Amino acid sequence: MVRITTLLITLSVALIPALAAPLRSHAQPEYDELPPSQRPDLRIEAAESLFDAQLDDTAVDLFIQGSWTSGIRGAYGIALHPPLGPAGRRFTPGYQFPGMESIPFYNFVDLTVSLWLYERFFFETTFIDEFRVYSLILGYQGREDEFVQSVQLGNANFSISEYPYLRFAEATEPSPGASALFETANTRHELLLRYEPTGTQRALFIGMNEVAERRIAPSRFIEGQYFVLPDENVEDLRVYIEDKDGAFSANVNNRTRFFRELDLDEESAYSKSEGYVFLREPAEGRVLVYYERDGLSVGHENLGENALVGDLDTSSRHFIDPDSSSNFSFEESETYYGLDLRNLEVPIDGRDALLIYDPGAFNPFEMQNHFSLQGLDVDEDTEF
């Protein structure tokens, strides 16, 4: 039997020795000349196997079951971004996006091939991925009333039945082994011998508490929630959150957007003296901030001292230089790692606010050192 996904194809071939029956030398009556009761049954029934060869008393069956998917695919990316490099390039053809790598030809295979002899002895193999051999089994299958019911030898997920206080689950991956099953009218006997593909697992405890470890990529920081201001010891701090029902409108990226003023005490944790704002919930849209210091508003050329890590006009570099710093102001005409600082100035409610969060865009005032602990059992005794 051949089964490819939902398509079933069957074919039967019979081989009979030439001397199995003598040739008839006399003429046979035509089919139409015979009475209806003596006409032979000429109906053809569907075969149960792909190949069924009979030579004397020898029976051979071949079964193929599973799926095989082949295809051709490719990907080509084009990126539009802020100016990069000394030339200020904004267009990058042939950009490689994650998950869109070109694969000219691929195979997804999950096929099992079985060859049976006398409907008792069999050889079975399974192919996966790019026709990689996954398992091999050589075995014997007995009749219903025989003592030897099954014998298997090879590289597969061998297992036997569960017994009280004993459980033999399938191996996690194909491993060398053998299994056998014997039955009588009143008893049942099973044998299992296999190489166990297990590994060592370790647990670390501090006192009565188990230490849980979770690895988080540096790029997986929480976005739109933690911000540092260009200045400390500020006054008249105001934060505006993008909201389609907001009472304030502002032009951001040449498009009119609506904002509402954040209730700092209810919706955030902030410090005017240290210069930071932590939202209680991540913002889904853009965030603006306004403050004053010494009578000057945010973005003034006399404020923002050493607010930026790294030098200005660093578009030719790929990484921020932590050993240098520069001042921040809206009047600065040079770019900061591809970002035009003048585009961070957004007039709103009669004030010139600072755009500290724009989803998907780089901003030097968004803190990138906070990560989610979701999935960990964190309690009051957890230490960091």
Sheet/helix structural class? mainly beta
Instruction: Sum up the overall morphology in one term.
Output: elongated
Query: How far is it from the N-terminal to the C-terminal residue, by CA?
Result: 60 Å
Q: Provide the gyration radius in Å.
A: 38 Å
Which band does the percent of strand residues land in? 35-45%
- Spans of at least 5 consecutive residues whose pLDDT stays below 50 are 1-27, 380-384
Task: Explain this structure.
- The chain has one helix spanning 264-267; strands at residues 2-4, 7-9, 51-55, 58-73, 78-84, 89-93, 103-117, 121-129, 132-141, 148-156, 175-183, 188-194, 205-206, 209-210, 226-228, 235-242, 248-252, 255-261, 268-271, 276-279, 287-293, 296-297, 308-309, 325-326, 335-336, 339-340, 345-348, 351-357.
- β9 and β10 (148-156) form a beta hairpin.
- The protein starts with a strand and ends in a 27-residue tail after the last strand.
- The strands form 7 sheets. Strands 1, 2, 3, 4, 7, 8, 9, 10, 11 and 12 form a 10-stranded mixed beta sheet that branches. Strands 16, 17, 18, 21, 22, 27 and 28 form a 7-stranded antiparallel beta sheet that branches.
- Helix content is 1%, strand content 42%.
Task: Provide a concise account of the structure shown.
The protein is mostly beta strands and 384 residues long. The protein is 1% helix and 42% strand.
Essential attributes:
384 residues, mainly beta, ten-stranded mixed β-sheet, seven-stranded antiparallel β-sheet, 1 helix, 1% helix, elongated, disordered N terminus
Give the SSE layout.
Elements: E1 2-4, E2 7-9, E3 51-55, E4 58-73, E5 78-84, E6 89-93, E7 103-117, E8 121-129, E9 132-141, E10 148-156, E11 175-183, E12 188-194, E13 205-206, E14 209-210, E15 226-228, E16 235-242, E17 248-252, E18 255-261, H1 264-267, E19 268-271, E20 276-279, E21 287-293, E22 296-297, E23 308-309, E24 325-326, E25 335-336, E26 339-340, E27 345-348, E28 351-357
Parallel strand pairs: 1-4
Antiparallel strand pairs: 1-2, 3-4, 4-7, 5-6, 7-8, 8-9, 9-10, 10-11, 11-12, 13-14, 15-20, 16-18, 16-21, 17-18, 19-20, 21-22, 21-28, 23-24, 25-26, 27-28
